[in-house]
């Protein structure tokens, strides 16, 4: 059930919203409506995996109960605040640690059980394939490669569940008031399938109050939702078709212009696809009165790789910083260790995206450029005109997206080789209709306008509020056009459903 399918738009979402308003007086009843709706939503998509999530939730509650009991029976040996300035700048909290209690063992069990879901569903086939290749290389009998279907949204679910365990262990937040509240946090359907990744301590207050939804929430939320649908159906899906044509070809048969067209198409596709989903999720949550944190901040206007990762998939970057980078030592253990921590974090980010060597290499590639930024690139970018720093950054990012999109490292290398040869000629014609290039120009123009607006310090939200009627009228027209296009062709799932 996709957000822009008729079943969701004209039956599921209106029914849930009306029930939420009908039970508006009682906070607990509103929470139950949302929980049941969220379970039904995910059960429609993953009817078998949902029972495993229930078991995992029960284990989380058991683990947190044991952690809380350990905390209650042992005085804290130390209470300290992270000295990392990045942590304080991000609103760091005082973290209480109980190194001599059983709490850490229970935390390890809880985190391991959640990561086991990822390892089994996401990486078992990948690991078995590599092991089989190794055994064959040394002339030993191979092994059977398991066929395991990847549940939609499993990475997002697991990462959010880990935040709850760690937050309670650190003393950042209290344990959930009851199973209903925690289950709602896990299953909340607007963000369930592809984020934003919501950290428990950021949202628990809203789930405890289960806010009333008013007319302003509906108008603001639905406007944001329409924007996301427009991005997905009118821009991302068109770019997806163009990118598929290029990436399905043997790179040796492509011309220089064809290879670059495919790279640009995918660069635009992944941005408008994922930011479109985030817009829909944030908008749906707002309709019910919830405020989710932003996940994108115009990443294609970035003037360095570091700046890009402050703007792209911010919920994942924030999660990695708070739950991996800081525990590894952050920047508190010297320059070399800081560089190693950064590289490890982005290697982990690559692995999080999928079980393939292309994702691993993409993570290592981005981690390397973050280190280069700290070593020398940031200073050099600062001396460049803003437009040139932005263009150089986008060149680095686009090369990374080619690695990310290619099915194998060999194909990625071959395609990048063609992109580096202006004299490369196609051995067979590539059919790219004008609509691909028209939409690409529109997408690039949107990013250029964002860049100009940032240079002029334009407040886009304030501008939209001042012209609310015109903006919403334009969104409504484009929303209808997007739905018509979506209904006329096959549905294309969101890119991040695979992760």
Question: What does this molecule look like?
Answer:
The chain has helices at 6-22, 27-45, 49-73, 85-89, 103-137, 154-170, 179-187, 189-192, 200-209, 215-247, 256-287, 305-311, 314-328, 335-353, 357-382, 386-405, 409-419, 434-455, 460-466, 468-488; strands spanning 78-81, 94-97. It has a two-stranded antiparallel ribbon with strand order 1-2. It is 71% helix and 2% strand. It has two domains: 6-210, no CATH class; 217-493, no CATH class. The protein has 20 helices and two strands. By secondary structure, the protein is mostly helical. It is globular. Mean pLDDT is 86; it is low at 76-90 and 93-100.
Task: Please describe the structure with a list of short key phrases separated by commas or semicolons.
mainly alpha, 20 helices, two-stranded antiparallel ribbon, 499 residues, 2 domains, globular, 2% strand
Topology readout:
Elements (H helix, E strand, L loop, with lengths): L5 H17 L4 H19 L3 H25 L4 E4 L3 H5 L4 E4 L5 H35 L16 H17 L8 H9 L1 H4 L7 H10 L5 H33 L8 H32 L17 H7 L2 H15 L6 H19 L3 H26 L3 H20 L3 H11 L14 H22 L4 H7 L1 H21 L11
Antiparallel strand pairs: 1-2
Helix pairs in contact: 1-2, 2-7, 3-5, 3-6, 3-7, 5-6, 10-11, 10-18, 10-20, 11-16, 11-17, 11-18, 13-14, 14-15, 15-16, 16-17
Quickly describe the structure.
With 499 residues, the chain is mainly alpha-helical. The protein is built from 20 helices and two strands.
